[in-house]
Amino acid sequence: MALPTPLSLSITFLVIFPTFTLSSPPPPSSSPSDIDLLLTKIKPSLQGKTENLLLSSWNTSVPLCQWRGLKWVFSNATPLLCTDLSSPQWTNLSLSKDPSLQLLSLQLPSAGLSGTLPRELGELSSLQSLYLSVNSLSGTVPLELGYSSSLSNIDLGDNLLNGSLPTSIWNLCDRLVSLRLHGNSLSGSLPEPALPNSTCNSFQFLDLGHNKFSGDFPEFITRFRSLRLLDLANNLFSGSIPEGLGGLNLEKLNLSYNNFSGVLPNLGESKFGAEVFEGNNPGLCGSPLRSCRGSSGVSSGAIAGIIIGILTGIVVLASLLIGYVQGRKRKNREDDEELEEEGEEDENGGCGGEGKLILFQGGEHLTLEEVLNATGQVTEKTSYGTIYKAKLADGGTIALRLLREGSCKDGSSCLPVIRQLGRVRHENLIPLRAFYQGKRGEKLLIYDYLPNRTLHDLLHGMLSCFILFCFAN
């Protein structure tokens, strides 16, 4: 058989590549086109070592609009369609050089992909939807994905992805609508957005279930006011669930099978059932789980009666104690034991202009540097200030009570009272271990941290809180 002439080859080429009636392209761009990226980088990475049937359609012998799982659009928002295969004016070759042709969506769920996520996905300037769920993709989530200029919907669920989630993913915050990473092996703590006040105003769906994420509940999520679905189930999260979660208008929530503990926030009357929280620490309580009143079986009416009686006694005892402390202050000030202090003139050089730390009995091991560098977690907010649970560098735990602004304005009368309070020792009072006064007027009362309080601890703890309130005012 005679070989085809060059002219017949060109005619055959035009017949095989029917394309589309569209406007003339703008001048070619020097940067790689989306088609170049798909063929040279993204396709090899996604299919791995085994040729994939669906990805085999991504080649120059198939019209571009028939490449599986892809949707194309021109920069003027005109979609690429196979509208006229009989009268082509474009070929795949010419389209690949057209900088106005851009990939809008990549959707290949359940496609048998066995490779890795290519970092070049972040270079697709118009890509809005990335759906690659239910495949066998492995490796990590590339940080370049967070540098996309257009991504708003991501579904990488039910793959074999591992490692930590890159912080850069929150670069998409302003336009992100959904992020679904369900059913992978992602681990570590969930990174916070680089901007501390990010609210992700369009963000509606966050599904991180069935992974290996750990650490405390990612409290920054409570700032995402548009969130409708939150799934953190079957991970390794621990600690308390923040009260701010009750401020979200969630329609679906799943926090089951973690290690959450403490009191549940108020999530609305009968909005979610107990199954939302099952499989967590047995200490997790509150509606719709068991009551948090403890194992004593004391009824709420009995508790109210006890509290009223004790409050009456507190008022009388506090008045007597305040009078006693004031009398002792005037009579024995010069004879009292010396307090160990660290401040600006600390000869050990520990604090250098950061304020003053006054130590009391039982707090001699504390240093100003340890206190200021302790990592804190808010446990309670009251009318007289905020209470933190703080971990020291040596692994110890202390309680810090930050007095509200305006407390103890008169230092000459405030510090003597604090010193007297630091010497008070009673079996029903938590002893004050140290007091810190900063250069900007901040004041911290430092106590031993007492976890897992019972009803007895709560009722008796109210006495010290009341006394503290009196001194603070």
UniProtKB/TrEMBL annotation:
- Tell me what organism the protein belongs to: Actinidia chinensis var. chinensis (Chinese soft-hair kiwi)
Give residue spans, biased composition: Acidic residues.
335-348
Locate the region Disordered. 332-353
Q: Which GO terms describe its cellular component?
A: membrane
SUPFAM superfamilies according to UniProt: L domain-like (SSF52058), Protein kinase-like (PK-like) (SSF56112)
Any signal peptide, and if so, which residues? 1-23
Q: Which family does it belong to?
A: Belongs to the protein kinase superfamily.
Q: Which domain of life is it from?
A: Eukaryota
Q: What is its main location?
A: membrane
What the entry lists under Pfam families is as follows: LRR_1, LRR_8
Q: Which UniProt keywords apply?
A: Glycoprotein, Kinase, Leucine-rich repeat, Membrane, Phosphoprotein, Receptor, Repeat, Signal, Transferase, Transmembrane, Transmembrane helix
Gene Ontology molecular-function annotations: kinase activity
Q: How is this protein situated with respect to the membrane?
A: Single-pass membrane protein
Regions crossing the membrane: 302-325
Task: Tell me where it resides.
Answer: Membrane
UniProt-recorded name of the protein: Kinase-like protein
